[in-house]
Amino acid sequence: MLKAFRDTWELGIHSYLTYLRDRLLLAKDLLNESGSVFCPNK
Predict the structure, then answer these.
(1) Are 10 and 4 in contact (CB under 8 A)?
(2) Residue in 1, 7, 26 with CA at minimum distance from that of residue 18
(3) CA distances (Å), 6 to each of 3, 11, 13, 16, 28, in order?
(4) What is the 3-state secondary structure (H, E, C) of 1-42?
(5) What is the pLDDT of residue 41?
(6) How far from the centroid of its chain's Cα atoms is residue 39's Cα?
(7) Which of 1, 27, 41, 42 is deepest in the core (most CB within 10 A)?
(8) Does residue 6 contact residue 12 with C-beta atoms inside 8 Å?
């Protein structure tokens, strides 16, 4: 059974954005000073 968005992120968009922020901060620490992170936009 697949979990829906509401099942996965108990506080809705706030849970998702907190998860994303934590991952991006970690990526920033791991990147070289000249590195880049690209976030696609629809």
Answers:
(1) no
(2) 26
(3) 8, 8, 9, 10, 28
(4) CCCCHHHHCCCCHHHHHHHHHHHHHHHHHHCCCCCCCCCCCC
(5) 81
(6) 10
(7) 27
(8) yes
* Distance, C-alpha 29 to centroid of its chain: 15
Amino acid letter for position 8: T
Chain position carrying tokens 């998702």: 16
Cα–Cα separations (whole angstroms), residue 9 to 28, 36, 40:
24, 27, 21
11-37 pLDDT per residue, tens:
778 888 888 899 989 988 999 989 887
What one-letter code names the amino acid at 26?
Answer: L
Specify the residue for token string 């706030």: 14
User: What are the structure tokens assigned to 16, written together?
Assistant: 């998702």
